Amino acid sequence: MRLTERYSKETGREYALRMLKDNIIHLDLVPGSMLSENELSSEMNLSRTPVREALIELSKVKIVEIYPQKGSAVALIDYKLVEEAIFMRNVLECAVVELACKTAGEEAVMQLNENVKLQEFYLENRSPERLLKLDDEFHRLLFHITGKDQVYQLMDSITIHFDRIRSMSLIAVKDLKTISDHHAIVDAIAAKDGVKAKELMEKHLSRYKIDEEALRKEYSEYFL
């Protein structure tokens, strides 16, 4: 499991939750793998209590399965849960990208374009983890420039099932359209074309369906 430094005001539970989510999303903790409270607490230099609390929290969103008397495991991927996450993102992100067309100024468009250029760089240099973080940042920026930061935080806390699919797509899907989608979305925002921007976002978020066959072939053991 890969670990990053604990933030200065981060509680043990918050740190354990962040580390577990990050490692599950990036497939360092693969679907179906068992999770030992003792091993996790030792790796993160925490007591078992915050680790157990983090596992319980993740079980509430069905990303971790807890088996009484047996332990815990990373949940297999359930495409029904992925589709629910996509439904939420589609509703919220289509609305926010339309709003961005009305409110985004030159500086905001420049920030988005800089993000997409970095995505191109890390795609060429085969850094899927960094690319996923930039993808997250691109979507976060759309909410930030429209003054909807809290909405993004709520959405981000629930869509972890989709995040695993996104992470897998960066590795398994050869003809990745994500960055070209982002380019087109920024162009629509710069042109203040809300109809086009919404259409592009819907297409962008629907790609998980196109990628499903490739992902199931590459990672068949990870799915229900």
Automatic annotation (TrEMBL):
<feature type="domain" description="HTH gntR-type">
    <location>
        <begin position="10"/>
        <end position="77"/>
    </location>
</feature>
<dbReference type="Pfam" id="PF07729">
    <property type="entry name" value="FCD"/>
</dbReference>
<keyword id="KW-0238">DNA-binding</keyword>
<dbReference type="InterPro" id="IPR008920">
    <property type="entry name" value="TF_FadR/GntR_C"/>
</dbReference>
<dbReference type="GO" id="GO:0003677">
    <property type="term" value="F:DNA binding"/>
</dbReference>
<keyword id="KW-0805">Transcription regulation</keyword>
<dbReference type="InterPro" id="IPR036388">
    <property type="entry name" value="WH-like_DNA-bd_sf"/>
</dbReference>
<dbReference type="InterPro" id="IPR011711">
    <property type="entry name" value="GntR_C"/>
</dbReference>
<dbReference type="InterPro" id="IPR000524">
    <property type="entry name" value="Tscrpt_reg_HTH_GntR"/>
</dbReference>
<keyword id="KW-0804">Transcription</keyword>
<protein>
    <submittedName>
        <fullName>GntR family transcriptional regulator</fullName>
    </submittedName>
</protein>
<dbReference type="GO" id="GO:0003700">
    <property type="term" value="F:DNA-binding transcription factor activity"/>
</dbReference>
<dbReference type="InterPro" id="IPR036390">
    <property type="entry name" value="WH_DNA-bd_sf"/>
</dbReference>
<dbReference type="Pfam" id="PF00392">
    <property type="entry name" value="GntR"/>
</dbReference>
